[in-house]
């Protein structure tokens, strides 16, 4: 199922406006995002602040829940660019497609999930998870792999030291926890903060801070699309402007800019989440996909026994455009 961004009217208006100004070659870009999340704030800010417009690009965002579905949309030409976890491109690379998928710009550089405890915890220690029921993310996805990696680094064996639940669909994890499943849960924002505000749980740790830097969410496209250098360079330049703006502006300004994408979320909550993600540097500060961070990603996948090939960074990542705009 595809969930279209409600700003289509604004998109059309922008195209008409640019045409009226004499900029006739406006390129509409179909972008598929794996989720609608404040974790992706620089993308939405870039659209709302007109950075993509300045590059002659009209970005039409479609939310396609599930990494496999987003990747399918990219491979079938349903979208031009996909915003998804870098691990997905590694899975596809093992299938040797005729038109390989290439990662070209990074949006987030840490895990975006938080550990939420059902009960209030004083002086949290990871050993407190032993003997409890932990409601994790979907098996094989980066959130779950990162979560298990962090648990192991803190002396917790996910298969032996606790009861690990990972068969709940991504969209239903919050509801499962709210209905009484699990003592601890791994949640993205703003759900983690909403649970805190409603007294349903307490954020006790950040998987992003524990895991360190990895190319968690990146923009990728097919190799053939990279041939449109004007498109990819313009997109990457707009993204870099947005990344700078998100860190240079106040959390209040950022929250106001991206609020149209979260109509049912209180502005103060959006601001809180933006600040939390900025404080732990979850938003990448430039679009370059660093090789060392990529190796960290591979290590997480190896630990989860999900790496069946020996990925070649030079084939999976094209940093030409990102390096050029950062100059």
Automatic annotation (TrEMBL):
Keywords: Signal. Its main location: periplasm. PROSITE patterns: PROKAR_LIPOPROTEIN. The keyword Signal applies. Transmembrane segments: none annotated. This is ABC transporter substrate-binding protein. The keyword Nucleotide-binding does not apply.
